[in-house]
Design brief:
It contains 1 helix and 2 strands, in the order E-E-H. It is rod-shaped.
């Protein structure tokens, strides 16, 4: 605490005035600094609000991205299941077609075997008939 010299009417007026001037200057400096601090606080509060809004926006974007990723994943799984189902249907159709072709080829092969057997019998019969004719030629008298 500041001590003042005493004069005739009380404290020394020059010392008191100088002290008051000093206190006023310090108070003015403090008020100026406080105003600057208040401005800085306001600026920082506005910046904080801006970042809070950005955070909320980013959080919403992340949630939307997660939902979109989940939908895409579900869609991909559904599409994969559909592809597998279609592939199974196509495989069954291909197998059935192959079985039908194999059955048709087998029937055709059996028909050809029967035809070969029939042609062999006919040829045998013709050969036997021709052999009989040759034998009959021996019996004819060529004189």
């Amino acid at each position: 605490m500041k001590k003042f010299d005493r004069s005739l009417n009380g404290y020394n007026v020059h010392q008191v005035n100088a002290f008051v001037d000093d206190v006023v200057d310090k108070v003015d400096d403090m008020i100026t600094k406080m105003k600057q601090k208040d401005l800085e606080i306001d600026r920082l509060n506005k910046e904080l609000e801006h970042y809070k809004k950005m955070d909320a926006t980013l959080n919403r974007a992340v949630v939307m991205a997660e939902e979109a990723a989940n939908k895409i994943q579900q869609s991909s799984l559904s599409e994969g299941d559909l592809i597998v189902t279609e592939a199974k249907k196509n495989a069954n159709r291909i197998i059935n077609d192959a079985l039908m072709k194999a059955e048709h080829i087998e029937e055709e092969s059996a028909r050809l075997r029967r035809n070969i057997i029939t042609y062999k019998r006919r040829i045998r019969t013709l050969i036997e008939q021709q052999a009989e004719i040759v034998d009959d030629l021996d019996k004819i008298d060529i004189e």
